[in-house]
Amino acid sequence: MPVADLHVHTTRSDGQLSPTAVPAVAADAGLDAVALTDHDRVHADLDGPLVERAGVTVISGIELRVETDTGARVDLLGYGVTPTDALRRECERLAADRRQRAAAMIDCVEDHLGITLDVEPFDGIGRPHLARAIATHPGCQHDETDAFETLIGRGDPCYRPRAVPSFERGRRLLTDACAVVGLAHPFRYDDPEMALALVNRLDAVERHYPYGRSVDTARIDRLLSTTELLPTGGSDAHDDRLGRAGVDASEYRAIRAAIERHAT
Predict the structure, then answer these.
(1) Terminal Cα distance for the chain, rounded
(2) Phi, psi for 224 (deg, rounded to 5)
(3) How many CA atoms lie within 13 Å of 65's alpha carbon, on the beta-carbon side?
(4) Which H helix or E strand runs over 35?
(5) Which of 54, 21, 23, 17 is nearest to 38 (CA)?
(6) pTM above 0.85, yes or no
């Protein structure tokens, strides 16, 4: 049973729980701590990298998609965020890019299906919002999975890429603002070995994650045993099911200690 879920999304990006609702849901799930890791968003409502709410420690975090030198894209997780001006500016740029991308995808879906979607671009908008709008439209036969697989997934007719920072720029932005910077879900990428090769420039790697399929966790364990990388983990919750994956007590203590050192 994990004591901390270090990968949770809220309504500030594409999650269903509001940031204020997360601590109580985490407490109900038996968690001691939870990290808010919304896409490209910092949590200005948290007045520090670690905040106690509803008996739960809330960690200020962020998830940032970056592009490697090979053109592949991976996600970085930052923990213990004290936002810098540079990170805030990049988040503002990414928010504008998300709105523009969403507008283009909405127009394409509406033209493609001959419908009008009940959604407008907003800060933090992502493809899950578009998929839900498609699935709930009364004149549409697609569910959310169909929307991703046939309309708005990578390579589909209405997909548009985002203008994300390079791996090195994203790493620098997070390193300057966060206590711990790690690689998210290494076995979700087309080339896990390419992704894992990046961790020598990071502090951590996501060890615990609900992939739903067999993965080579021994590969990560070997990395952890031969390096000073910290193991992280979380549910990647976009709903209210927190704690499906996360770190144990000793792993959480190491993450918390790193955040506390960075804050002093």
Answers:
(1) 31
(2) -65, -30
(3) 15
(4) strand 33-36
(5) 17
(6) yes
